[in-house]
Amino acid sequence: MPDWQELVRRRLSGLRLDSNQKEEVHAELAAHLEESYQAFWAEGVPEPEALRRTLAQVADWKELQRGIHLARIRKDIMTNRVTQLWLPGLLTFALSMGLEAVVQKFGPRPFVLDLDKGTPVLMFYTAWLLMLPLAGALGAYLSKRAGGSVRMVLAASIFPVLPFAVVFLIAIPVGLVVNHNLEHHIVTAAYLSMSVGWVLAPGVALLAGGLPVHLLLRRRSSSQNAAIV
Amino acid sequence: MIGSGIKRGTAELAVLSVLQDGPLHGYELARRIEQQTNGALRFTLAALYPMLYRLEQQRWIRGAWETSANGRRRRCYRLTPAGKKKLSPLQREWAELFRALQRLTKVAHA
User: Fold this and answer.
1) Which domain holds residue B58?
2) What Cα–Cα distance (Å) separates residue B10 from each residue in A104, B23, B51?
3) ipTM value of the model?
């Protein structure tokens, strides 16, 4: 009788799962093949034929490997995105909004930027900007702890400005192209100052917290890996 | 030719229905389906396990390693509460589809 476990391991050698999952799959499929083979044997099917019929259950091992891989990782992708991006990102967003509310109520007066005839275009809450690195650091920490890649960690850390970035970089320019009755110099100046105030400045502040956390955790994990090696 | 969506749907229905009677491991499950459908539905290993893993990811079934009386370790699957909840509408939908097809074929032969 063949070593079913070894046979499955060899035929599914390209299965891209973590080692525990892979071992489980190998053991389960080997048990199935063994049982199938023994059932044929018990029915009186000669050994070579029993072996042939058992192995005929898998016409294409590569296809089976692909099917198992897809079935097993589908949820992992979803779970990872939730724990590495959405959850830390939303917490960062909530914290930054909370901090802004606190600063608006109890903090110092904002720095007001106006363009024409004293019309305020933008209010800079400097105290809020100074606190934002905390929120960015939290997002980066949570994402990194969930195993996020550099891209995920940085996206989670600047998550609060991403909706504004989409609006300022895409929606407003498109709107201006469609509706071009407004005075161009006013619109351009307002657009630039608001982009700085809503996207660039808070984005840099968030990143000032997120990036050091990312670098710190990366250095720590690489030194741990070195210690294990 | 039967589309892959229909094939997958019938396969899922078969697995969930059989597991309704109690937990089974993969090989036993395939045998039970074959016996209960008089050989009309046959699951090879290649078709069965990707589907079992998919159903497990959807949390309709749960697999756990168990040791049988003869000392063999097998991964047994059982229906979860979510799977039980899913099963009745699934059975209804398929019953409706078969009735509709029957009506259609009768009309076509008339």
Assistant:
1) 4-109
2) 59, 19, 11
3) 0.84
